[in-house]
Structures are given as structure tokens and as C-alpha cells.
Amino acid sequence: MWKEKETIGFHGGFNFLDTYLVKFCNIIEEVSSGSTPEIFKYSIPDREVKYVIVNLCPTESWELPNWAILENKTLSFLDKLGEIRVRYFPKAHFFIAINKKEDRTIAEAMNYASNAEWMKIFALDQKYPQDDPVLLTKVILGTDINFGQDTMDLGILILDAQTVSAIYESCILGNKVNSRLIAISGTGLKENEIINVQLGTSVDKVLHYRTVEAGGYRVFVNGPLRGKEISDLSQKIDWSTNNIVVLKEQDSKVMFPMLKSGELTFTTNTHGELRQCIYCNFCDSICPVDLEPALYYHSYIRGEKHKARLYNLEKCIECGLCSFICPSKLELLRINRECKALGKKL
Amino acid sequence: MKKSLKPLEDILSKNLDRAESFIHAHPKINFLFGSLFEAFDSLIRSTRETAQTQPFIRNNYDVKRFMGAVLVALAFGWVFPSIYFYGWQCVLPKLMVSFIVGVFIVDVSWAIIAREGHISEGGFVSCMFIPAILPPQSPLWLTGLGAALAILFRNILGGVGNNLVNPALFSRLFLTICFPALLVAGYQIPFVGIPDLHALRYGLDTITHATPLTAFKVNGEIPSYFSLFLGTASGSLGETCRLALILSALWLIKIKVANWRIPVSYLGSVFIFSLFFSLILGKAVAPPLFQLLSGGLILGAFFMATDPITATYNQTAKWVFGAGCGFITVLIRDFTTLPEGVMYAILLMNLLATPIQSLAVKMRYRI
């Protein structure tokens, strides 16, 4: 009953990869859009790029895992990266952030980096939201950027693995890239899969025959934490779509939830009633940027939204971990956003 | 096993659904029993609510579990040890009276009168504390009155989340003022050795003995630290077995229900200040280790002062809060006629927590 691992190890982030185990099987299918697919275009930034950060450290378990792109291809991937550097960013420093637990990838990359001075390898914890631009630049370069700020202002370019290979294919080899890999997972699906989808395909078509028949489900593009819920399934998949999560809408009561937390965990259920803040300090110990979200909540319920801005609210990176962990089920992220929006109007 | 229980679960769940819709359809029944049903229902079933705003996935840890963890820790911390030391006839009736009066009478009638939607979980924790902080031989009605006062006081302030001071300690303060004789006497010598049936039932009955702190005030007598640590010296029902209390509190700290900063700073400051005073005043005041292991200090530092609602929210301010508790405790123990000061210290610092918190926040954000 009290064995839940997730209640213990959280400090400045949360380990989703170990808590929500999402296993993808190796099948990679092709889903075609039916019409002419859109073609990936990458415009090389015209401003000077000083640093390029390649993020190989997905921190949400439903994100596209690295092995789908890198498996047995780490060296050729790094070769591609080298060619992109020579062609487009000859003066830039390259930083590659890899999950600490992926020993093999790190070893291969380290071996490669010993011959390449332009590249540095960083082994990062797999804590969400470690791959957020604000935290990535803070950890790797030591520079502070504001949430929502374009990293190109400071000459920092952040790329993910799939974009790197697509840039290589389209800009250097001159091939047309019209499809990308998408991870689909969740309790609303029969199976978790990684699918090769043509750009421009509708979400409906991807999820066709894959969702469970019984019960309601909700669809989230780019994950339930940072992503958006879409009610209109005819929306098209573009290059920014990394994953689709389909969660079971658990809106009926379940007997003895304490005994079967596994059944409920990966659903939209709040797992508890709304209560008053009990000052448990969960939100400020999980906050990755060291804020105290309960202060904003107290300012908000006292009707003093403007006071929330006094407590470093602008540093909030809207990762949603405070709402996620809150035992009283308070909508802390929504309150943060409301208080922030007030600041902009004044 | 699980599969065979599945049809039973379905039947129970359906009937609960039916009862719920019946209650909601009849306003008068809802007025009287709605909150009671809700409380019972929420204990055995999950909620219907789903996340409507980002993030759409929530952790499965709620206030019920939070309070449940405290209840489990208290059960291992004082209920089981005190059954061994004083017999179950001393412990269980008090617990039952405390829960029946506190939760099932005062809390439920408050929910009906004040038209609260639900019965808060925090009441259980307060009711678990009440017998622990009263003498073993205190009458049952005193426990009942204490539980009633604690829950009433908690509800008047607005329930869990709005408490100004610890309700259980407030009710003990009230009882100390109203019935001083009952709270000074009635400290029983615990049973030691291999228990037989009689001992498990009654303990060593009717042998009263002053608490170690009172004995020290009167004639400067100090019992062995070992007996204090294991709980074989007299004291309030739940405060004697320090070993069990510390172990269960460590578990609470590990699962992040209790904050480690408060007990560390509380016990640390008690040690430092009592060392300081005993170096200056010599044998007139109690030595540090004796102070740490006597009275309600361990129970207070690990379970009462760490009550998150009445302590400060800011982590730095928690150090100040704990240190203040320790300082006041030592002051009261050493320089007043009262033998024990933990209750007063925690209550005072609970009141001071709000200014400490706002000061700490102002210093941190440079407002």
C-alpha cells in the first residue's frame, strides 16, 4: 500500500521514465497521409550560432526514445552532425546531452569526441524537465535565459536527434524528407508503438484501429504534461509532433484504489479530491527552478494576484510538476499562468 | 483471489452508486447524511474527477494518504508500545472514545450544521494524538472532552489547512487549565518484562509515579537514560517509548510527510541551550541528554511540531521555527515552576510561525 516509489525520490524534478513505464515494441510502420505529404524544410538560422545543443535526453516516458533513431547508428549520427557543422556552423561549439543511464551511447560518443575537439558530451539525469531549454542552457552553458525566450538571441541552437538526421538528409544529401517517427502510447491504446508517419497525416488516421473500443479516452499531442489536448482529431501531424498520448478517461469511481494504484496511474483521473493547501512542501521540493508555488496559490486565493509576481514568478518554466505532485489536487499551473498573464497586462 | 472478488466489487460499487444518486435526489437526506456518505465513499473508492487543465496526468498521492501515513506512523510509534507497557484495557478504550467523540460525533455534526461537503481527514490525526498526550490513568471522559475540543477548535478555524495552532495541543492546554489535578497525577509505572495475559490487559495497575521531569524538579533525581529511551519510565501514554517514536518518525521523514528540518533544529537547539544553561548553572538545571529523552520532547519534535499546516511553509524558516521551539522548551523547563514545556513551546511557535514565514519570504525575495 505504501510502496509507491514515486512518493520518495523527487527533488528538483521527477523521474518519469522509471515511474511510468512505457515500453515500445520495435515495429515501425508506415502511415501515409493519402494526399501529397508535406515536405520537411529547415531554414538555417541567419544569425550567428555560437553553441549547438543536441538533446539526446528525452525525460518523459512517452517521448520518442533515442534507440529508435540511434540504435547501432551512434557513430554515423555523429558523422552526420560533423558534416552539418562543417557546412553550416563551422565556428559553433557542439554539446551533446545524453541520458546518464545510456552507458553504451555515452561510451561510443565519448570515444568519438576524443578525436573531435568541437564536440562535448554531457551526461544528464533523466529527470523531467531536464530537457527544457531553460534548464539545458543552465546546466550545459551556465547561462540564464528566461522562459519563452528564443534561445537564438544568445546564439544557442537546440536540436533533437530526429531533426539532426532530417537536416542531414534534406540539406546535405538533398533528399526529400516527408515523414517522421512518432511514438504513440497510453492506456487508451491497444499497444504502444513507434510509427513512421508522413507529414500532414491527420491524428485520426494514425490512431485508427489502435484505440481501445470500450470507454472514453482523451488525446494529447506531445504528452500530457507539456502538450496540448486535442478534441478535433482531424488535426494534421507536422514536424513538431513528437508523440501522441491517448489516456483513458477514468471518470467513474473505482473500488479500493489504494490496492490497485497501477490501474489508475496512467489515466486522466486526479487520484483524489480537491482539498485546501496543507503546506506539505511537495511543490517547492519538486520545483526544478527552486520556486515556492504555494506562495502563488496563497496570493491567488487571497485575491492578491499581483503579489505573486513578487516571488520570482517570471522564472517559472511551466513544467506543471507542482500541479502534478500536489496532494490537495490544486491547479497550481493554471494559477501561475493567470498570475503571469496579469503581469503582462499592467 | 482478486478475480473472485471482482463480481463482489462490482455489486458493491453499483449499490454505492445507487445510494449516492438516492442521496443526491433527496435534499433532506443529503443535508443529514451527505457528508458522512461522502467520507465513507471516498475512503473505499477513487474519485470521479479528471484533470481538466495542464498537466493532464496527476500523481496518485492525495491528502488521504498523507494523513493515513501519519496514522500508520502513530500506530507503530505509540499505540503498540503503550499496549505493551500499559495493557490494552488502558489504551484501546481511550482511542475508541477519542475517535467516536471526535470524528463520529463532533466532526459529523459539524459537517451537518455548517453544511460542509466533506469530513476532513485531519480529524483522525488529531484524535489519534489526544490519548497519547494525556496521562495513562486519566479518565475516559477527559479523553472524550479533549477530542471534542480539538475537533471543534479545528473546525471553527476552517478545517484542515486553516489551523492556526495544533488542535490536539490546544485542547490539551484547555484541559490543563480546566483540570490541572487530573493532568498532574495519574502517571503510571510501565510494565517491564515478558508479558503474560494479565499484563497485556492491565499493565501494572494503580502504581503511580511522578514523571521523570517532575521528579527532577522535586529532588533532582535522574533515571537511567536507557530506561527513558526504551520507555520504561513513566510519562504520558504515548510519549514514553522514544525508540519506537523515533523509528516511525524516520519513516515519515523518508516518505516526505514530515520535514526533517524541524526535528533536527528542535532537538539540536534543546541540546545546545540546555548544555549552555547547565554549564552556567550547574546541577540546578537538567542536563542536555536527560532533557532530550524526557517528557514529550520526542513526540512533540517529530510529530507535533512537524505538522505542516501549523509550521512555516518556507524551508529556511523551518530552522528558525524549530530552534524557537527548542529555546522556549528549555526556558520553561529550566526557569519556571512547570516541569514540562513542550506543549507551550509548540503552541507559542505555532502563533509565531506566521510572522516568521512572512519575514523569511520577504528576506528571500528581497521585497
Structure description:
The complex is a heterodimer of chains A (346) and B (367). With 346 residues, chain A is α/β, with parallel strands linked by helices. Chain A has three domains: 30-36 and 179-265, Ubiquitin-like (UB roll), CATH 3.10.20.600; 51-172, NADH-ubiquinone oxidoreductase 51kDa subunit (Rossmann fold), CATH 3.40.50.11540; 272-345, no CATH class. Helix content of chain A is 29%, strand content 16%. In chain A, the strands form two sheets. Chain A has a six-stranded mixed β-sheet. A four-stranded parallel β-sheet of chain A has the order 4-3-2-5, sandwiched between helices. Chain B is mostly helical and 367 residues long. Chain B has two domains: 63-256, no CATH class; 258-367, no CATH class. In chain B, 68% of the residues lie in helices and 0% in strands. Chain B contains 17 helices and no strands. In chain B, helix 4 (88-113) packs antiparallel against helix 5. Chain B is globular and about 70 Å long. The chains are: A alpha/beta (346), B mainly alpha (367). At the A-B interface, helix 8, helix 9 and helix 12 of A face helix 1, helix 2 and helix 3 of B.
Write the layout of secondary structure elements.
The complex is a heterodimer of chains A (346) and B (367).
Chain A: H1 16-19, E1 28-31, E2 51-56, H2 67-70, H3 74-87, E3 93-99, H4 103-113, E4 119-124, H5 133-140, E5 156-160, H6 161-172, E6 179-185, E7 193-198, H7 203-207, E8 217-221, E9 228-230, E10 243-248, H8 261-265, H9 282-286, H10 293-301, H11 305-308, H12 321-325, H13 332-345
Parallel strand pairs in A: 1-7, 2-3, 2-5, 3-4, 6-10
Antiparallel strand pairs in A: 6-7, 8-9, 8-10
Helix pairs in contact in A: 3-6, 10-13
Chain B: H1 2-25, H2 27-44, H3 63-86, H4 88-113, H5 122-132, H6 140-156, H7 167-178, H8 180-184, H9 197-202, H10 212-219, H11 225-230, H12 242-254, H13 261-281, H14 288-293, H15 297-304, H16 315-335, H17 342-365
InterPro entries (chain A): 4Fe4S_Fe-S-bd, 4Fe4S_Fe_S_CS, Ion_transpt_RnfC/RsxC, Nuo51_FMN-bd, Nuo51_FMN-bd_sf
GO cellular component, one term (chain A): membrane
Domain 4Fe-4S ferredoxin-type (chain A): 307-338
